[in-house]
Amino acid sequence: MNQATQIIPFTTSGSLVDYVDRKVIVVLRDGKKLIGILRSFDQFANLMLQYTIERIYVDDMYGDIDRGVYIVRGENVVLLGELDLDKEYDAVKQLRRMPAEELYPLAKLHEEEKKKNIREKGKYLHSVGFSVDGGHDDLY
């Protein structure tokens, strides 16, 4: 096969067509995890999900918040993938389901601890000569 006829994988938003009407998980830039049925998308990878839930994980617990129809701006999508329903069930049954109202404060606390650890690690790395992303001396 010569270079002119070589098959190139389709990596634009058009590659989402295989996921339409399937259950997907979408991870957003802010860390939210959305699970729903992908109903539509456009050339900017803006997504429309139906029967959407936001799933919160904390340690060995999880909680779901019903979000219904959810529109996601494409630039906020970090990851999108089809869910294997059997594997999802097997994975979730190893966790304890909790009311999302109880998990939300715990998730916020975990997130703050994570940010604090990242800041401390950044300070240490800066003290030994490394540049920290987003720091005042980061010129990129």
Would you give an account of this structure?
- This protein is α+β, with helices and mostly antiparallel strands and about 140 residues long.
- It contains two helices and six strands.
- It has a six-stranded mixed β-sheet.
- Strand 3 (about 45-60) and strand 4 form a beta hairpin.
How much is the average pLDDT?
86
Classify the helix fraction into a percent range.
25-40%
> Reading side by side through the largest sheet, how are the strands ordered?
5-1-2-3-4-6
Q: Return the CATH architecture of one domain.
A: Roll
| Annotated CATH topology of one domain | SH3 type barrels
Order of helices and strands: EEEEEHEH
Tell me the Rg in angstroms.
Answer: 20 Å
Number of H- or I-type helical stretches: 2
β-strand amount: 25-35%
CATH class of one domain: Mainly Beta
First-residue to last-residue Cα separation: 41 Å
Number of strands: 6
Q: Can you tell me the overall shape?
A: globular
Keywords: Cytoplasm, mRNA processing, mRNA splicing, Nucleus, Ribonucleoprotein, RNA-binding
InterPro entries: Lsm1, LSM_dom_sf, PTHR15588, Sm, Sm_dom_euk/arc
GO cellular component, one term: ribonucleoprotein complex
Family: Belongs to the snRNP Sm proteins family.
Highlighted features:
140 residues; alpha+beta; SH3 type barrels; 2 helices; globular
At a glance:
By secondary structure, the chain is α+β, with helices and mostly antiparallel strands. It has helices at about 85-90, 100-125; strands spanning about 25-30, 35-40, 45-60, 60-70, 75-80, 95.
